[in-house]
Amino acid sequence: GFRNLSEFMLSIAFVLCSLANGLSIHGMYNESPEQAVFWSDIKNSSDFNSTFNGGNLVVPRGEVWYLDESMEVETLTIRGQLKWDINKSGLEIRTGYLLVENGGYFQLGTVAHPMEHEATVYITKMDASNHSHPEAGYRFLASVGEGSRIDIHGRQLDRTWTLLTKHVHPGDMELFVKHDANSMNWRVGDRIGLVTTNQGVSTVHHIESIGPAIEWQLGLTHATSGHDVTARESSA
């Protein structure tokens, strides 16, 4: 979980920037799903428990795994290849860390075929003494070593920020912005941050609706530290 709102917003900013602009480390290559072993088959195989090292999952070198169902493990180390099913929405990897090493490869979308659906890599809070790495540290998504690669490519956004054209007051559930939300490729359900112009508390919201382009209006649900609340609660 998040210790405070700042940590929550920093994590969101990382995800949004990564998916909007593409995160690429040491290049990219592709194989079709037909050449991969499906995670749903691996975890349901008869010998999986005997090879699953106490919750510390390793994708072996030379193997290609295809993530077609959510995964929850203590740690995840990729020495082969792990590729995300970009046709499914809502898949998650929950792990104390995600390490790509020894020439391994993690792919969540490509430039040619970006991830257009919801996808989450959630770094859980584990005991640091047993879930850390001498180079990457504690609670991380990282590649280590020559030839190790991470590719994350999501929906392309023409703009990742805009300016307000009207003042916003506590409890307001609408924003009027300078640029057309549709032209920026923003969508209903997207998370956005509303940053104050003073030393007040910045907030995170979800877009609930997008108004006519002539007004460039966004309807919001209010969120504080990841918890949605109603307009009445937010103005209380």
Descriptive keywords:
236 residues; disordered C terminus; 20 strands; 4 helices; mainly beta; six-stranded mixed sheet; five-stranded antiparallel sheet; 33% strand
Tell me about this structure:
The strands form 5 sheets. The protein has a 6-stranded mixed sheet. The protein is mostly beta strands and 236 residues long. 13% of the residues lie in helices and 33% in strands. Strand 19 and strand 20 form a beta hairpin. It contains 4 helices and 20 strands. It is elongated.
Topology:
Layout: H1 5-21, E1 23-25, E2 37-38, H2 39-43, H3 48-51, E3 56-59, E4 64-67, E5 71-72, E6 75-78, E7 81-84, E8 91-95, E9 98-101, E10 105-108, E11 119-123, E12 132-133, E13 137-138, E14 141-144, E15 149-152, E16 174-176, E17 191-194, E18 203-210, E19 217-224, E20 227-229, H4 231-235
Parallel strand pairs: 2-4, 3-6, 4-7, 5-8, 6-9, 7-10, 8-11, 9-14, 10-15
Antiparallel strand pairs: 1-15, 12-13, 16-19, 17-18, 18-19, 19-20
Largest sheet: 6 strands, mixed
Report the end-to-end length measured between terminal Cα atoms: 25 Å
Gyration radius over CA:
20 Å
Structural class: mainly beta
Number of strands: 20
Principal-axis shape = elongated
- Tally of alpha and pi helices: 4
Which oligomerization state do the chains in this entry correspond to?
Answer: single chain
Order of helices and strands: HEEHHEEEEEEEEEEEEEEEEEEH
> Which whole number gives the mean pLDDT?
79
Proportion of residues in β-strands: 25-35%
Helix proportion = 10-25%
Uncertain spans: 1-31, 224-236
Strands ordered across the widest β-sheet: 1-15-10-7-4-2
